[in-house]
């Protein structure tokens, strides 16, 4: 897959035509998941459910901002065993599937949820695994009018049709720092040393979908290591934050693996880099 192009073209789509995706494409999603999907913790047990339009009614009230379900002909539900960093792993896996969907010219939208049990009950799944990630997908309505998020508050997310192309994103300058949080000096020189490759990986990270488009994270480069930092954010739930971390790591890694194939993220770490209060180290890797 051409991750760079696919990541640049991906966007959340919230209006779908009532047409089922053909069986061969559904099969290639399943095959990609079982044979090739990228994982942070390959040893964790996961299971992918590819659901049809029957799931739509079932998921109503169980998934989506303010329980507004994005109606779609299909949904991906990723189940995972409970373990430390299992949700980050699920975010990473599901975002790779989102990119695969884009590769198949299918549109998609991540969906939030709060209770695994409620979702399992709604879709009639009996499993010891937990629901860890949900994405709606299908063929997006071709229109210049898109459903735009107007986030008034956590409990008042208005989704209205407007002329709208992409949700605005933070630039690399606001997301990547050198040695200490907030310090941009030296970032360009460091990134420049790797020609365009490191820049492309960070650019891909800035384009990652995130809960309510909050992008509550950033990176610090120090001593040849890249560290993902979480920013405190009153809107993000713990589950959505962890999914966001997995998603942004997938974007960075999918591009960086083009020239650094052995990248391995180590989770946790002591607070350093003069992080402001409430900021935390999520994971780091060396180049
Ligand atoms: C964990 C997560 C949960 C999300 N939940 C929803 C949701 O329930 N409903 C929705 O319309 N969009 C949802 N989104 C999509 C985000 O709003 C979207 O990614 C963000 O606004 C950025 O827009 P983009 O994906 O077009 O770049 C979610 C995204 C993430 C990462």
Topology of helices and strands:
Elements: H1 3-9, H2 23-35, E1 46-51, H3 54-59, E2 74-80, H4 86-103, E3 107-111, H5 116-123, E4 130-138, E5 145-153, E6 156-163, E7 176-178, H6 187-193, H7 197-206, E8 217-222, E9 225-230, H8 238-256, E10 266-267, E11 280-286
Parallel strand pairs: 7-8
Antiparallel strand pairs: 1-2, 2-4, 3-4, 5-6, 8-9, 9-11, 10-11
Helix pairs in contact: 4-8, 7-8
The structure holds flavin mononucleotide (FMN).
Care to give the gist of this entry?
It is built from eight helices and eleven strands.
Provide the descriptors you would attach to this structure in a database record.
287 residues; alpha+beta; NADH Oxidase; 2 domains; 8 helices; 11 strands; 31% helix; globular; binds flavin mononucleotide
Polypeptide structure, described:
- It is a single chain.
- With 287 residues, the chain is an alpha+beta fold.
- It has two domains: 3-138, 3-Layer(aba) Sandwich (NADH Oxidase), CATH 3.40.109; 172-286, putative nitroreductase (tm1586), domain 2 (NADH Oxidase).
- 31% of the residues lie in helices and 24% in strands.
- It is built from eight helices and eleven strands.
- The chain has helices at residues 3-9, 23-35, 54-59, 86-103, 116-123, 187-193, 197-206, 238-256; strands at 46-51, 74-80, 107-111, 130-138, 145-153, 156-163, 176-178, 217-222, 225-230, 266-267, 280-286.
- The strands form three sheets. The chain has a five-stranded mixed β-sheet with strand order 7-8-9-11-10. A four-stranded antiparallel β-sheet has the order 1-2-4-3, with helices on both faces.
- Helix 4 (86-103) packs across helix 8 (238-256) and helix 7 (197-206) packs antiparallel against helix 8.
- Bound molecules: flavin mononucleotide (FMN).
- Residues 11-12, 14, 64-65, 70, 109-112, 149, 166-167, 209-213, 240, 243-244, 247 line the site of flavin mononucleotide.
